Amino acid sequence: MRNSTSRLNALLFTGLIIVFGLIGSVQADDAGKGKRGDDASRVKRGFEIAPVPLNLHGKDRNLVGLGSYIVNGQGGCNDCHTWPSYKAGGDPFKGEPKEVNADGYMAGGRFFFAAPYPVALNGCVISRNLTPEDGKPAGLTLEEFLYVMRTGEDPDDRTGEDPDGMRTGGDLDDDDDDLHPPPRLLQVMPWPVYQDMTDRDLRAVYEYLSAIPSIPGEPQCP
């Protein structure tokens, strides 16, 4: 009798373990499905709100759609990097039906203020052209793009020269800070917010920007 009771208890205990294991598995699976479903809805919405035709050749379609959702539905990137941001008659701030300026989409050109170096590299703070150059957004590789978004360092200042011909950023010499000042930080651009985004989300932004039409040229100070 005692053996039968022990055997029954063991079976009940084993059954409980199996039941709880199945419950945990179902919950984890549901959570995974929920995340995938959320991503799918954002990807779908991203394609719906993209204001320009997209070149998906060689691109990760899901990342492009997600990137569009972040850029156009969350990040407000158009407000600064497209100038003017809206077409004539399409400015929602004037009570007009929204219509993004597709002809200048992400080509930069919004002037903020004049400023000398090191606040500004070329005499003013103006939004940059983010459209693809040789297939790369703003001419940046993915690694460079992630670095800029994480640190806020001006990519031109990191690899170029300041007005006095002194190397900066990439050639920083800790023993000679006067000759090699630290890289200039981007102004107005809310990189302190974007730097906390996940690698995947930032990669999605990069993938999306690589898929938009290229508009040659860099905005100049007025």
Structural class: mainly alpha
Order of helices and strands: HHHEEEEHHHH
Mean pLDDT: 82
Q: Write down the overall geometry.
A: globular
CA radius of gyration: 25 Å
**Relative helix content:** 40-55%
Cα-to-Cα separation, first versus last residue: 96 Å
- How many domains would you count in the coordinates? 1
E-strand count: 4
The number of helical segments is 7
What does the largest sheet look like?
2 strands, antiparallel
User: Strand order, biggest sheet?
Assistant: 1-2
Low-confidence stretches: 16-20, 159-174
Strand content: under 5%
Word description of this protein:
It is a single chain. The chain has helices spanning 2-49, 61-73, 77-81, 142-151, 155-159, 191-194, 199-209, and strands spanning 111-114, 124-126, 132-133, 136-137. The chain is mostly helical. The chain has one domain. Strands 1-2 form a two-stranded antiparallel sheet. It has a two-stranded antiparallel sheet with strand order 3-4. The radius of gyration is 25 Å and the shape is globular. The chain starts with a helix and ends in a 13-residue tail after the last helix. Mean pLDDT is 82; it is low at 16-20 and 159-174.
Map the helices and strands:
Blueprint (H helix, E strand, L loop, with lengths): L1 H48 L11 H13 L3 H5 L29 E4 L9 E3 L5 E2 L2 E2 L4 H10 L3 H5 L31 H4 L4 H11 L13
Antiparallel strand pairs: 1-2, 3-4
Helix pairs in contact: 1-2, 2-7, 4-7
Summary, kept brief:
With 222 residues, this protein is mostly helical.
Descriptive key words:
222 residues; 5% strand; two-stranded antiparallel sheet; 7 helices; mainly alpha; 43% helix; two-stranded antiparallel ribbon; single chain; 4 strands
